[in-house]
Amino acid sequence: MPCLDISTNVNLDGVDTDSLFSDLTKAVSQIVGKPENFVMILMKGSVALTFGGNKEPAALGEIVAMGGITTEVKRKLIATIGSILEDKLRIPRTRFVLKVFDTTMGRRSPKL
After folding, report:
1. Phi and psi for 33 in degrees, rounded to 5?
2. Per DSSP, what are the bridge partners of residue 78?
3. Fewest beta carbons within 10 Å, which of 48, 75, 101, 103?
4. Where are the domains of the chain?
5. For 108, left (φ over 0), alpha (ψ -120 to 50), or beta?
């Protein structure tokens, strides 16, 4: 199950969060290759957050998935999620950081 957790200093009052959640869910599902009903999105607004020493709109995201994460997938996630946040929350893509974790990385196959 991919889980995307985003914290932002943007106030979410008055934001169409249904549309935001829908766009993020669809993007993660398509890019990671998992069904939408397996995708979890957490969004925290009005977080005390600075980036580059100022409090202009910014966001930090973390996505954790069990497999499906390649270098190309990481690039697509960063670009697509960044575009959604820019469109929906007016957060410039240059003020968004995404940490990507694949829980299956580093696992060794059991020896038979």
Report:
1. 80, 35
2. none
3. 48
4. 3-102
5. beta
Superfamily for the 3-102 domain:
Macrophage Migration Inhibitory Factor (3.30.429.10)
Q: What is the pLDDT of residues 9-60, one digit of tens each?
A: 999 999 999 999 999 999 999 999 999 999 999 999 999 999 999 999 999 9
Q: Give the contacts of 86 (CB within 8 A, at least 6 positions apart).
A: 92, 93, 96
Structural tokens at position 26: 């669809």
* Distance, CA of 21 to CA of 66 (rounded, Å): 21
- C-alpha–C-alpha distance, residues 57 and 55, integer Å: 6
Q: What is the pLDDT of residues 71-85, one digit of tens each?
A: 999 999 999 999 999
